[in-house]
Amino acid sequence: MMAPILKVENLSVELKTKEGTSPVIDNLSFELNAGETLSFVGESGCGKSMTALGIMGLLPEKISRVSSGRILFQGEDLASVTQKRLQEIRGNEISMIFQEPMTSLNPVYTIGEQIGEILRRHKGLNRKQSFLQALDLIEAVQIPDTKNKIHSYPFQLSGGQRQRVMIAMALACEPKILVADEPTTALDVTVQAQIFDLLKELRVKTNTAIILITHDMGVVYEMAQKMIVMYAGRKVEEGSVNQVIKSPAHPYTQGLISCVPHLTEKQPEVRERLLEIPGIVPGLTSFGLNKCLFESRCHKSVEKCLSSKPDSQSISTGHQANCWNLGK
Amino acid sequence: MKLVFAVIQRVFYAAILLLAVIVLNFFMMHLAPGDIADSIAQTMGGADEEIMKEIRADYGLDKPFLTQLGQYIFKVAQFDLGYSYFYTQPVTTLILAKIPATLLLVITSQILALIVGVLLGVQSAKNPNGISSFVVSMLALFGYAAPVFWTGILLLIAFSLKIPIFPVAGMYDVMVEGSFFVEALDVLKHLVLPVVTLSSIFLALYSRLCRASMMEVLGSDYIRTAKAKGLSRNEIIYKHALKNALSPVITLAGLQLSAVVSGAVLVEAVYSWPGLGTLAFNSILSRDTPTILGILFFSSLVVIVGNLLTDLVLRLIDPRMRGSE
Q1: Which member of B29, B63, B182, B287 has the lowest number of beta carbons within 10 Å of its beta carbon?
Q2: Residue of B216, B222, B223, B233 best to disrupt the A interface, most CBs of A under 10 A
Q3: DSSP SS3 for A7
Q4: Å between B223 CA and nearest CA of chain A
Q5: Yes or no, beta carbons of A98 and B240 under 8 Å apart
Q6: With 0-12 CB in 10 A as exposed, 13-18 as middle and 19+ as buried, what is B181?
Q7: What's the CATH number of domain A6-93+173-322, 1.10.287.3510, 3.30.70.100, 3.40.50.300, 3.20.20.450?
Q8: Angle of helix B180-218 relative to helix B91-126, nearest 10 degrees?
Q9: ipTM surpasses cut 0.90
Q10: Closest Cα partner for B253 from B208, B215, B285?
């Protein structure tokens, strides 16, 4: 088997708050293979976006840092390389799409310039070459009227078109990894579907591995092969999408999936009441504690959950969950 | 095409504004007590009613207010600003002779304040807790708190008397004669202290604003995008951030033009700079209405043209000002 393109080992990220520092990502490890889509799922504030920013080296400088662990991209540790090397990798080999297409483009430059600039930066193209390639890219992300649109400014485009421009930009250098942080949250449902179709199509074409961050189980099922469920900065379950969605092991994952109406089954005659997970995510101050952080909301908790942090328990090949009370 | 249309539209509005300014100035001048007849009578050591009437008739001051206003506007439209009673010269000639000196002072100090202010602002926004940030804050505090004439006098004492590297007053040295280059250098030497004095307030203003605006922009989503694209720090700051951060600074600079012109009056007084300020001061003392009106007209013109330019520059840097095409 091929070596994974990205291997994250025991990554911890600290966030400084008024109450002190807390680990917003706690000892996270995972692997990503070329051409694969890995999805991160979880509630808001569980560390999904911090994971994305951590991989990109874009953690907010003043308040957060990687406190331990390694981010191995093709064997090179991104957590300890120089800024200069990071700049060479970013946008070129690893690129990112953000969740706010309305504000993620620079308002004072044309989209042609914003796409072209990344090609000049990383591929050494001149102005004319980069313009021509930007034209191709805009066409590839299916923005109509390419020849005129390339001279438009972001404010002249719709939200969906802006996100397409972001995708064109992210894919300009044919990166090995694309990090998509809730790329369709701000868009309406029909545009969402188009954006995901586009991403799928481009993945097949370029064999780019995708890290997809979302809280939409439907999107995970549609897009990803593997998934990781995060809770309060910790990985609680990992496995193939089929394994996790068909037979969720961790009580939190079970709760998340029962929240989603009729994902894989046929719609029953009588609609059941949707389930919810009681309570809220614990505050940042308790993130580092040596206990199960889901315990307060869990209906299966045992005594051990209060006194020690759950280890990873294997369920079947590639499927594991961090819980003291699996299957009991 | 759109640009041409926008320019024509703005020039049209500017013309209307200028007309309003002329009328208002004229009206205010007539509200103020005393006129040229009083001033002449004073220098003659007194005059009776008969002579006063004669003087007023000579200058057309006995006509009804509206007639005087109408005549004035009609003449201004032909670039005739009237005749100075005090200097016995056409006001236009008088002002045209003085305006280059003032424009030189105003434009140089404005450009200096903008460039240095923006550079300082950017530098301190890059490192909000660093030394340069502290320097900018202190500079801003001093520059803004100290009155121009006070700064002017202090600089004069420091660099003309104690350490005599700059001339004390005026714009030229009568002893210096030679090629264009030699004379230009002489003017430049005279220019340094007035320009530094005048720009100190605006430098403070622009550096503070640029710092704040830059820091806001650096925290925005598109700067994160620029980082994610792998651009270098300089590309991010000078290409992506600065162009966005400049808009408020340029807007303020346009608004400040009037303050620059009035500040120039004070600076000119301190350094005996032979510009409009000195002329304005003298003509107010001698109740030389046409000259005062002429100066007000010219300074309004400077401000209006300045704002017009500001508008155009803003259109140039921010596409959203242009509207969708």
Answers
A1: B182
A2: B222
A3: strand
A4: 8
A5: no
A6: exposed
A7: 3.40.50.300
A8: 40
A9: no
A10: B208
A-B C-beta contacts closer than 8 Å: 73
Buried b / exposed e over B17-29, threshold 16 CB at 10 Å, is ebeebbeebbeeb
- B325 to chain A, minimum CA–CA distance in Å? 9
Q: For residue B273, what are the β-bridge partners?
A: none
Q: Which residue has the tokens 């993620």?
A: A104
Q: What is the pLDDT along chain B (325 residues), one digit of tens a residue?
A: 677 887 888 888 888 888 888 888 888 877 777 666 676 777 666 667 777 777 777 767 777 778 888 888 888 887 777 778 778 888 888 888 888 888 888 889 999 999 999 998 998 888 888 887 888 888 888 888 888 888 888 888 888 778 777 777 777 766 667 777 777 787 788 888 888 888 888 888 898 899 999 999 998 999 999 999 999 888 999 999 999 999 899 888 888 887 787 788 888 888 888 888 888 888 888 777 788 888 888 888 888 888 888 888 888 888 887 764 4
Which of B216, B229, B232, B243 has the most A C-beta neighbours within 10 Å, making it the best mutation to test the interface with A?
Answer: B229
The correct answer on CATH 3.40.50.10140 for the domain covering B97-283 is no
**Are B209 and A92 within 8 A, CB to CB?**
no
Closest CA to B296 of B13, B23, B15: B23
- List chain B residues with CB under 8 Å of A122: 230
